[in-house]
Automatic annotation (TrEMBL):
Enzyme class: isomerase
A single GO molecular function term of this UniProt record: peptidyl-prolyl cis-trans isomerase activity
Keywords: Isomerase, RNA-binding
Domain RRM: 8-86
EC number annotated for this UniProt entry: 5.2.1.8
PANTHER family, A to Z: ATPASE E1, RRM DOMAIN-CONTAINING PROTEIN
Annotated segments matching region Disordered: 113-171
Descriptive protein name: Peptidylprolyl isomerase
Length: 171
């Protein structure tokens, strides 16, 4: 499970039925400025599912709230307070529940264009390398043939063997 912890959002579990977002906000406001409070609803009962999320503006405030509120009692129930993990859903590049599926369409398109450009550049580089290698082989072959005509190297068996192997590799 390789999910990244959200350091300024807290999961608050063990909420009593009477607790709503306003009460949850009031319970956590002493620890710092709160950006958002959510209590997800059960679709069938339209009541919260006994947990919620409190997002602080500052990480330090979230840490202080977690230290002080984990194990605390609210409306007769003991709270469990931890850093929240992002909820995964199908769709969307990053899979975050708060992100619509189409949110990454622009970045996906840009990445596709970059990949196509990289492939085109790689093909051009490969073609240029092949041309350069062929040119280099021709130069070496011409040099070796020039050495054959040289009276000092004409009878040298090593020069003759190298020239022969170059001819075979070019064929």
């Amino acid at each position: 499970m390789n999910q990244q912890v959200q350091k300024n959002t807290l999961y608050v579990g063990g909420l009593a039925e009477e607790v709503n977002e306003t009460i949850l906000h009031s319970a956590f406001i002493p620890f710092g400025d709160i950006k958002d409070v959510k209590t997800p609803l059960d679709q069938a009962t339209q009541k919260h599912r006994s947990f919620g999320f409190v997002t602080f503006l500052e990480r330090e405030d979230a840490a202080a709230a977690m230290d002080n509120m984990d194990g605390a009692e609210l409306y007769g129930r003991v709270l469990t307070v931890n850093y929240a993990l992002p909820e995964k859903i199908k769709g969307g590049e990053q899979g975050w529940a708060a992100q619509p599926i189409w949110a990454d369409a622009d970045t996906w398109f840009e990445r596709q264009q970059q990949e196509e450009e990289m492939q085109r550049i790689q093909k051009e580089n490969q073609a240029a390398m092949q041309v350069a290698e062929e040119l280099h082989r021709k130069q070496i072959t011409e040099e070796r043939e020039g050495e054959k005509d040289d009276p000092d190297t004409k009878d040298d068996p090593m020069v003759m063997a190298e020239a022969e192997s170059l001819k075979q590799s070019n064929s």
